[in-house]
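Hey all, quick one. A colleague (J.T.) asked me to put the GDP-alpha-D-glucose job into the tracker so the inputs and the structure tokens live in one place instead of scattered across chat threads. No bug as far as I know, just bookkeeping. Sequence used:
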Amino acid sequence: MIVSNRVASPKERAAKAGGLAVALREALSRRGGLWFGWSGETEVNPPQAPKLMKSGRVTYALQTLDPEDQRAHYAGYANGTLWPLCHYRLGALSFRRSDFEGYRRVNQTFARSLMPLLKPSDIVWVHDYHFIPLAAELRKLGFGGRIGYFHHIPWPTPEVFYSLPSHAALVSDLSQYDLVGLQTAHDVRALLTYISAEAKGWIGPGGVVGIRERRFRVSAYPIGIDAKAFVTDAEAAANSEDTQRLLASLAGRALAVGVDRLDYSKGLPNKFHAFENLLERYPQHRSHVTMMQIAPVSRGEVAEYQALRRELEESAGAINGRYAEFDWVPLRYLNKPFPRATLAAIYRTARLGLVTPLRDGMNLVAKEYVAAQDPEDPGVLVLSRFAGAADELTGALLVNPYDVEGMAETFDLALTMPLEERLERWRANMDKVSSNTIHAWCDTFLSDLSSETPLPEGPERRAA
Ligand code: GDG
């Protein structure tokens, strides 16, 4: 059983599903299973049971929520509190007890609606920060089977995590899982440090953790992409109509591309400033490089996101106003999403991939950019050291996104990098992207979650 906030309905699936949705669906189809989540609809006094839809071996179970609960859960606690907290943005953190209560209520609703569908032998895999208390709620209803949790975003270090008034409750909820998966070793260290310092837990070998009577495992499972599918898409894109149109519009200029949801964690203002700084301090690149930022609007109902959108519109206007020529616009800023095939064409054409988040769990765009490159003439990935992907993609040029001038220097270095070095760096990155795929990630997590090997006893039990 997979639980995630949004479930692409069977109708939507083919057209829109991204790599993660496709991989989870494949994992479910192979084993047969159920995908449970929010229907995307709200209704006062919603039905207590989910709407069921079957497609092949996968059943979709979609729960409708009360509008106020949904707001408190999604825009309130999940995206107004946990998202900024986990991305180290304490200035953007807002905490209201009523939102926290709404968050718990939605988790209770989900547990009540899921419970009648569960058999004791079922394995439940919960995705992301919207559902941290779900295992605790299922346990209260008597579910004793295996439950795993994967946290797609960073886990903050204890000093940051303490800012959350409900930090102890959240970790106590986490202890009701059997397996907690995080993106990187850094995230694991952050959580384990909190557990031993604050939650009075013990840490055993292999990431085994004990808090009070609970024993569970915490481990890193860096998420990957469907590398083969991306290579195929990119090869197909090499001569596509999209590529032809793009090349014609560039008129021989180098392209630097960024693809990010319009989110403050993605560091877009800093990236724009760095590009502006490049044009200012390296005039040789003026009229010779075009930056394209694709930034589909996300969580548009949250005030922080509206402010970011205004800031970027102003900044893009200022850069273009200052540097554009009658035949060259330095920055193309696009607020709409594009089909995956078009993205593949853009990635492959781009000499530079600019992935510069202030903080990111993994960042799949970095891996997609690598997979889409022409193996004979690959582009250069410029990557924030604060993206989880920086651990694996050692061939990238790493940057500190807070250092705008440093980033501009790195953009210059990337634009002038000789082919030999580009090849060497790309090969190192591609090795990682093609070995640690989304399928490998899925299989490893599920096999660890299903493992029957008993966890070692904690210190008290051993002493007794
Ligand atoms: C969260 C964590 C973690 C973007 N624009 C378009 C489009 N996209 C696709 C990309 C990529 C996905 O959306 C974005 O994934 P990221 O990993 O970059 O970022 P988040 O959305 O913040 O994801 C992140 C991830 O979960 C997985 O665990 O890596 O750290 O924050 O696949 O290609 N896709 C299409 N058109 C667009 O315009 N088709």
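Adding what we noticed when we looked at it: Residues 18-20, 152-153, 223, 259, 261, 294, 296, 337-340, 343, 360-365, 368 surround GDP-alpha-D-glucose (CB under 6 Å). The chain has two domains: 2-224+440-452, 227-435.
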